């Protein structure tokens, strides 16, 4: 996205958005700080008990090890995997360094986690020649000051900038200019779209929607019949459009994840096992975003799409996975016997606060 000729007002109004994403952030810090780990498959997390992978080095990812994967499964895939305990205070300190670099170029910053953020450089790009030049400078300064690499995407909206940052990982830069946006999306599988998860991907595939070009053939009205309130978003991104601004200091109200079953489920064992996986993902997400919450909400969607929720709150922010797991399972147990089989299971944590300010609770009251 180079500088535009003077007088071309339409081009001048185009937004310049960056998505900067650190490469295997937690694992790369561990490899940076411990030379013995360099070039070896590393997982940040705990190997014992119900541990999960919080992050994996690229050497570990080659074996299929990913964040939120149960530790025992990670070791099955990669027996040579080296587990190191997380050091979130270090990760937060490095994240602060990275944000100091961002602020040299713009104050329009929307953090997504400790290791990634959107930046709006619409007002600054001309001074540096292009938004791409800013992205290059940011990546260069991050590596110089932290010893870590970052990948960046440059485009005219958030959706495309995030897609672009993943194109040349690790340590890459990719640009999607306005004239290429729609064509880029057309060739892309829908499972690559940020905001289209595995369950939605499966539903789209059943409808014959496999690429952006397939999605583009559907009207908003037709999409709404299958995807409800998300229809407009899917309609827009299939055309390379995304009107969401970079939201500075946006307060996060909740964090959640859910699973849609390929077949309706009613057995306690299957639902409980799925819920434990959801809890593991949610704990990792809270740690990555340095937040903790007090209120846990369980969502069930029955066959026939009737949805119900139940919630409970703790008197303290929840930082221990065992506490969240117990609360989630108690909420699930309260629905038994079920009215009918379950189509979707989801868990959300809210009443959020900054994790740094939380004093860990004594676990004695919550032992199983």
Describe the structure.
Helices cover 37% and strands 23% of the residues. The protein has 15 helices and 12 strands. The protein has helices spanning 9-12, 25-33, 58-61, 71-77, 88-103, 125-128, 131-146, 158-165, 181-186, 198-206, 212-216, 220-227, 231-237, 268-288, 321-333, and strands at 17-22, 42-45, 53-56, 82-84, 109-113, 116-120, 150-155, 173-175, 254-265, 291-302, 307-318, 342-354. Helix 8 (158-165) links the parallel strand 7 and strand 8. Helix 5 (88-103) packs antiparallel against helix 7 and helix 12 crosses helix 13. It is globular. The model is unreliable at 3-10 and 357-368 (pLDDT under 50).
Radius of gyration: 22 Å
Strand order of the largest sheet: 5-6-1-7-8
Shape: globular
Largest sheet: 5 strands, mixed
The amount of helix comes to 25-40%
User: Structural class, from helix and strand content?
Assistant: alpha+beta
CATH homology superfamily of the largest domain: Reverse transcriptase/Diguanylate cyclase domain
Please state the oligomeric state of the protein chains shown.
single chain
What order do the helices and strands follow? HEHEEHHEHEEHHEHEHHHHHEHEEHE
Please, how many domains? 4
Domain UmuC: 17-197
Organism: Bombella saccharophila
Keywords: Cytoplasm, DNA damage, DNA repair, DNA replication, DNA-binding, DNA-directed DNA polymerase, Magnesium, Metal-binding, Mutator protein, Nucleotidyltransferase, Transferase
GO molecular function: DNA-directed DNA polymerase activity
